[in-house]
Amino acid sequence: MKDVLQEIVANKRSEMELLRGRKPSLRQALLDSPTGIIAEFKRRSPSRGWIKEEGRAELIPLSYQQAGAAALSILADNRFFGGAPQFITAARNSGVTLPILYKEFVIDELQIYQAALAGASAVLLIAACLTKQQVSSLMTVAHGLGLEVLLEIHSESELDYVDLQPDLCGVNNRNLGTFVTSVDNSFRLAERLPADIVKVSESGISDPRTISLLRQVGFKGFLIGETFMRTADPGAALADFIAQI
Prior knowledge:
This protein is α/β, with parallel strands linked by helices. Helices cover 40% and strands 18% of the residues. It has helices at residues 2-20, 26-32, 60-67, 86-94, 109-118, 132-144, 184-190, 208-216, 226-229, 234-244, and strands at residues 37-41, 44-45, 49-50, 71-75, 100-103, 122-126, 148-153, 168-172, 198-202, 219-224. The termini are far apart. Mean pLDDT is 92; it is low at 4-13.
């Protein structure tokens, strides 16, 4: 019985070390990268259905890394995106060392623990889904586990959330009500965001020239998923995209 208890304690200690262990920084990766591309493993979209139902987490994220991605985003939501936290673990086990964003509708701190255990580097907190106080509380939990926070906003009405000083701020170019996507949203909000915050433009980027234009207004990161996932070889599509920047 004593041996069993000792093993349980050892396992818990190992688990906590993993939770609080050093993780590759998404923020620093974007600052250091010449492209800033966060390549997304996204098998399904709530507006368009399955994109790549057969997509394998042990293959595509690693191919993104080999193609030159600055970081990765992996969907953990199953209901709408066909994702799972286990996909992050599978990517890590395949050899992925890049920062990974845990992309999910995070509303509970248990999800943040789940992200850390899976091997993520950062979590997404969506202003439209949370109060400012909830974002603050969840951000404290994330930072306590060594995770960075990408705060996502969609409109001017959410700009006050940026006062919480997240590690990164994302501008979603997709209207959550109509699902219409326009990169103009990033250009419109860019000048309203603090100059020193690391800005990420999310969704709707399909032309390499758009990245150059977004960089000119201060964006360092560019989250791109469907543009690559809809092709036969997402990694090769990313490599070709980067070659055109």
